[in-house]
Specification:
Blueprint lengths: L21 E5 L2 E2 L5 E5 L2 E5 L7 E10 L2 E11 L25 H19 L10 E2 L7 E9 L2 E7 L6 E3 L9 H16 L5 E9 L2 E8 L5 H13 L4 E5 L6 E6 L4 E4 L2 E4 L10 H15 L5 E4 L5 H5 L6 E5 L2 H11 L4 E5 L9 H4 L4 E4 L8 H7 L6 E6 L2 H13 L3 E9 L8 E7 L1
Parallel strand pairs: 4-6, 7-22, 12-13, 17-18, 17-20, 18-19, 20-21
Antiparallel strand pairs: 1-5, 2-3, 3-4, 5-6, 8-9, 8-11, 9-10, 11-12, 13-14, 15-16, 21-23, 22-23
Helix pairs in contact: 1-9, 2-3, 8-9
The structure holds S-adenosylmethionine.
């Protein structure tokens, strides 16, 4: 006879007490975030900046999920794939995770991130295409953290899992013009920000020059505004804007030329803070993969369309309707699309995803959602009677796997899955999946 909840029905959770200590560990493989993985007393130990085959002396630092996190103190024996990292900030700067791994094993590891996706779907491993590379040194946009201290401004990227800023003179992932701007940018922020200010600076290279946005709480007086306008003049910026995060709106302080970007021959004004693919090279790879997959499958819906990176590439193929949640992006793209047969519509696809009856109008759909994935839009795409071809572009294999699960369960077949290394030396991976039914 049962007397309510049985105490024996739950297995006792074994919690090993944490004691900081040194261990010698053999690194067996790489985890999804690019950390080396060893085992200790039956639990996984994540050891950043190590490679398979390394034997390391490491200090246990605490729990990570069901395992441990350890910091490597000494490489006792180096694994075969280990190489000298090319960047002097590697290991301190939190931007890159894998510069210490040779090219071949690095690329194989990135490809394996998608093998996890096909395995979860039960899809044939043959659908996985070879990885498409985007070279370091090609990024045209980046956001840097800065802190104004008594001695001046630190400007760079956050250290790993920390708010500390690693002050950098250059970054090998970026186009060379970034590092030329760092010294005068430090001097500018030192002049206009009071001690203790922390903020972000976003820089984007456009067709008409650099677009710069500073986000910091400082209140600007007339002299600060003059200094900022003079900086824009001296460095030939296209635009310089400021946003006080508490106050919300972005204030353009100097617009010398409207920042413009080009997609497949169409020129679009870039609203401050609108989404743009990080490099022209990456954008070209993704656009070619999308355009090839869509073929002549018009009419097309471009979901999470941004400024129209893919919509404009598909403009010659027939009717395109583009849906995007950011009003400024829709306004800018719609102006550029006037008379082209591409229609941009503002729509929040999380709140009001395209319904199954709306999706039936389209032969093909491209969807390139934010990191969180397609959300409820994926469920509607999976419902019967929708488009025969889907192209999913994703920067997050975990949410891509979730969306693909829904679509495959809805009757789509995964035709191809191509990794695109848009974010070299990081654990991030872009992918393009083509599905049909
Ligand atoms: C990864 S970007 C892709 C943009 C575009 N496809 C491109 O390649 O440039 C994702 C886009 O989704 C938009 N977005 C985010 N949440 C959204 C939502 N709930 N509804 C509609 N669009 C959204 C963002 O504004 C952004 O433009």
């Amino acid at each position: 006879m049962s007397h309510g909840k049985s105490r024996q029905s739950r297995a006792p959770v074994k919690r090993t007490k944490f004691r900081p200590r040194m261990l010698e560990l053999d690194i067996l493989t790489l985890g999804a975030r690019g950390d080396g993985l060893a085992t200790h007393e039956g639990l996984s130990v994540f050891v950043p900046y190590t490679v398979p085959g390394d034997r390391v002396l490491a200090r246990l630092e605490g729990r990570r999920g069901d395992g441990w996190l350890a910091q490597p103190l000494e490489i006792l024996a180096a694994g075969e794939g280990r190489r000298a990292p090319p960047c002097p900030y590697f290991g301190r700067c939190g931007g890159c995770a894998l510069q210490h791994l040779a090219d071949e094993p690095y690329l194989r590891w990135k490809e394996r991130l998608l093998e996890g996706v096909t395995a979860k779907l039960g899809a044939d491993a043959g659908v996985l295409g070879p990885i498409r590379r985007v070279a370091p040194g090609s990024r045209r946009r980046a956001t840097f953290a800065f802190a104004r201290q008594a001695k001046g401004v630190s400007l760079g990227f956050n250290a790993r899992s920390s708010h500390d800023i690693v002050d950098i003179a250059q970054c090998l992932l970026l186009l060379p013009w970034f590092s030329e701007l760092f010294p005068p940018l430090r001097a500018l922020l030192t002049a206009v920000c009071p001690e203790g200010t922390r903020g972000d600076v976003s820089l984007t290279g456009t067709e008409t020059g650099i677009d710069m946005l500073v986000e910091a709480e400082s209140r600007l007086d007339l002299f600060d505004r003059q200094r900022l306008a003079a900086f824009a003049e001296d460095h030939d910026l296209a635009r310089l804007s400021w946003r006080r995060p508490g106050a919300g709106a972005i204030e353009p302080l100097a617009e010398r030329r409207p920042p413009m970007v080009r997609f497949s021959g169409f020129t679009v004004g870039l609203p401050p803070a609108a989404f743009l693919q990080p490099s022209l090279e990456g954008e070209a790879v993704l656009t070619a993969l999308v355009a090839d997959a869509i073929g002549a499958g018009s009419p097309v819906a471009d979901l999470f369309a941004g400024l129209g990176t893919f919509s404009f590439a598909l403009a010659g193929k027939g009717a395109v309707r583009a849906f995007e949640g950011d009003a400024a992006a829709v306004g800018a793209a719609a102006r550029a699309a006037h008379g082209t047969g591409v229609r941009f519509e503002k729509r929040d696809l999380a709140q009001t995803p395209l319904r199954p009856d709306e999706l039936k109008q389209f032969r093909s759909v491209v969807a390139d959602p934010p990191r969180a994935g397609c959300g409820p839009q994926a469920e509607n795409l999976a419902s019967p009677g929708g488009p025969s071809r889907l192209v999913m572009v994703s920067c997050n294999p975990a949410t891509l796997a979730r969306d693909l699960r829904l679509l495959v369960d809805g009757g789509y077949q995964l035709q191809s899955l191509t990794p695109v290394d848009q974010f070299p030396w990081t654990a991030h991976l872009e992918a393009v999946a083509v599905l049909e039914r």
